Amino acid sequence: MLGPLLRLLSGCGGVWPTSPAPGAASSSSSSGEDSEGRDGLLWWRDLARCHAGDVSVAVAQANQVLEDQCCLESAPPLGTVIGVFDGHGGPEAARFACDNLFPNLRGNPNPNATHLRCPPPKTDRRMFDLLAEVSSGPQGVTANAIREAFLATEEGFLALVSRLWEARPDIATAGTCCLVGVVHNRTLFVANLGDSRAVLGKKVGRTGQIAAEQLCSEHNANQEAVRQELVAQHPDDPQIVALKHGVWRVRGLIQVSRSIGDVYLKHAKYNTERIKPKFRLSEPFTKPILSADPSIISRTLQPNDSFIIFASDGLWEHLSNQDAVEIVHSHQRAGSARRLIKAALQEAARKREMRYSDLTKIDKKVRRHFHDDITVIVLFINYDLLAKGAARGQPLSIRCALDY
Amino acid sequence: MLTRRHGGFRLGRKLLSVWRWALCHRHSRGGRRGYLRLQPCHGAGRRSDDSIIRSPLLSPAPPATKHHHHNHQGFVLQRGDGDGDGHDDASSSPRMLTWGRSLARRMRLLRRNRKDRLLAEDAAAAAEATTPKGQVAVYVGGAEPGGESMRYVVPVVYFNHPLFGELLREAEEEFGFEHPGGITIPCAASRFERAAAVAAAGGGGKKVPGWW
Lengths: 404, 212
What we know:
The structure holds 2 protein chains of 2 kinds.
Chain A: H1 2-11, H2 22-30, E1 35-39, E2 42-50, E3 53-60, E4 68-75, E5 79-88, H3 92-106, H4 125-136, H5 143-164, E6 175-184, E7 187-193, E8 197-204, E9 209-214, H6 224-233, E10 241-244, E11 247-250, E12 260-261, E13 295-300, E14 305-311, H7 313-316, H8 321-329, H9 336-351, H10 356-359, E15 374-381, H11 383-388, E16 396-399
Helix pairs in contact in A: 3-4, 3-5, 4-5
Chain B: E1 4-6, E2 9-11, H1 13-27, E3 35-42, E4 73-80, H2 93-112, H3 123-128, E5 135-140, E6 150-155, H4 162-175, E7 183-185, H5 189-201
Parallel strand pairs in B: 5-7
Antiparallel strand pairs in B: 1-2, 3-4, 5-6
């Protein structure tokens, strides 16, 4: 009863505090409110139920072809697995990673065939061994298993590039960042490759306030630590990081220092005149300039861990960590991801001296001048459910449905 | 205390000023007195209606400083109450204006302090924006974002036109996507104006995408 009343109040402009008490939250989501919507360049799915709690997803497109992909699966034995893939130089790498990383982690091909955009490549012997290790080991998920899954995906993409190199050389310049979160019983793993970000919202004691904690380091050349690491790894290369358009980039080309794909910066044989001139390097390189080694953290979830925001850098360009957690905390759960995207776009519109309502009149591709593709997944953690270790409901599989 | 009775009610000093202003405004609607005076306004674009602020389509607005915190000076045409109406200083326009402005400023601060300020529909953002609804600011001709450039205000839908797409491609090659400030295009002002004229004529325009 409280749930519908709060929804009505929030529908009247959102001026009333509508964040329900924990008891009421579960009742509003159990009333079967799992809706999917699409409006122009925005897609959302709200309050789907997964093994770890509730999840709210939204994606906003800005590029001509959507280069962000996101994926969520929730089924035993792994629990809830969330992936955000921010592609660049084309959509191929992000789609490949989205299709193959979870099967590499889990050991089963995606049973829900309607979500597959392209069939995964034939898995080789090595991946089968890896999959068997993951699903049969007593520990279930480990950081090493996640790292191996990333490397297997990288190798799979490299195989794809070598197969398509003759017909489509531009696939050598496609790459993607990967942000993967796994909630397995009470353990949270976050693996990051690139500049997407996962932020935890933690309740502060009994004050009712919320604090933001960034869960994983980013691999972006605009960070001093990353630049120093690159310089240390490539002491003979004075141009390893260069400022271009006011932004630090690896070799003046790309901001991220680690990714899946981008084989033109990992294997010199793909850096030939067959790729676009702006990606060519003047001297050949002997060791890979980018790496595919993710940063992985693991932690035990606590009762005051309220929610986790997984988002591509399109969101963090305009919102700070604290702003984002406060927006999620001070509104009802349903629609959280959309709300975050709206706040980011309002900020983007303000920077470009225009109104938010006018931003929606701009077509994709031109929209890229105002903001990037944005993917947001908010996972609301149900600590009691995780502590009990109870499997909950049907297996869930979500994939962004924006046409590309 | 300066009060006045009207219809059986006592009006306090501030209410009295408002009352007198309202009465004067009604009387002078026929344009019998007052004169048009150009007065600088501070971020009052949102409050005023379109009859006061006109966005010059295709004619350059005065080049604005490139501060993000919007010290943009728009210009407002206002009726002056030059000759006064014989009453004491409580009814003088500058005081009325100052009080009105400070009230507007307090309202803005109040709105800004609310927790959901980031989500306040257009109001918070537009209070700082001087661009009218449906329009966007474009800086043309600068060597770099923030350099010397002409500031134009054009309808947003022009951006969907292929000619503008071409200009924006050049802008992306020159400045990248993530430059600070408003959209900046490194071309001659004449070329930009030609493109805007074609877009205004509706030549080869694309369909407007979905709303949300």
